[in-house]
Design a protein that fits this description.
Length: 459
Amino acid sequence: MAVTGTSWPTLPVRPDPAADRVRESGLLPELAYAFGGPFHFLLPDAFDANLAAMRQSLAEAGVDGFVYFAKKANKAAVFVERAAAAGAGVDVASAAELREALGHGVRGEHLVLTGPAKDPALLRLAVQHGALIAVDALDELDTLITGVPYGPCRPARILLRILPPQQPHSRFGMNDAELTTALERCVQAGDTVRMEGFSFHLSGYAIQPRADLAAHLADLCLKARVQGLETGRISIGGGLPISYTDADSWHAFLEGHDRRHYHARKAFQDSDFYPYHCPRPGAEALTALLAARPDGREQSLADILRDAGVTLLLEPGRALLDQAGASVFTIQGVKDRDGYQLLTVDGTSLSLSEQWFNSEYLPDPHLVPRDGAGSDSGAGLYPAGVGAATCLESDMLTWRKVGFPRRPRVGDLLVYPNTAGYQMDSNESPFHDLAIPPKVVIDRTDGARPRWRLDRHFT
């Protein structure tokens, strides 16, 4: 049933010519047939462009910096390969991620090992390859100093992670007393460790708190040098937001949606949603951060870092993957409900992970007809929610009744845009023994037909 004569909440994505060319090429129905299930396609050129933009922001601010790709944001090998080719680093948190990065060409000294409570075997592997280690607790530091055999003359390269004063209940980092003890132990350890600076994990996307804390870390570097430590690096983690849609669409959506627009009248709070519009996304957020004046300071953060001779380390994930991929599902069932349809696709919400965080992935999916025909079934919009091929009532890819330009049919494809950053595989699992969707790398989109290949992920 079409909806006519009324407004309907929608959230169109920003223009993405590369993804549009893939959708319009006719390739996606062929791949859906070949794989017999859902799949993701990746656009690694977008990764390259995002990395270049961040480096340009650092250069324009006159700040010495280094970018690590946060591998947890996407398991695809191609993004690690692109990071290695560009001389960037990779942020890892497990032995498997570390081995994967090395296997795809990332130099050991270009790895940073994060995460809490790292086991001795992982620490040993990191030290052997010269990776930088973000030390989260005193017992971890003690293991590095006394319990890990490194091989001849190789110190452990470390950053000390601090507990953010703005988030005192965070489970990451050391408080002031623990940090004082850690610095004393680093001094006493001599050549066993090389303490290179400090790091923090700060939730959220606000620029000012991140600038304030970065300036504090720069001060800590200066104080630690007085103790004889060679502290010249600070890591501010990720937290650079991206923008999926324009400001008008985002505000109109927030004002226009309510429980009537969701299957089963599911209720979401606006605060549950990712901020799908950001006025300064990605590299622009980095530029704004460097230009920000930390609280109580007369200089910008960029000036503070330059004067202190401190290198800024970044660990972005989503911000490097903006417009770097999409997820494709085939409609395999259609039910009519009261004024809308309920679609069932050949995958699960484990491949669209916001549902598993009590939230919703809001960008509108594109409806690709099974036969290439794009004619509407009539005037108006055809609202439909999207369920998964599992036996769980709660397994919905999209609770929202998306307004499609024509009536969806069995065999049509749904293409969820811009899912490379955390969405497409953060929570993927072979539930019901369903295969995890493969990843297809689109190496070229400028010809009559896109050039594609399967991603070479080792695990």
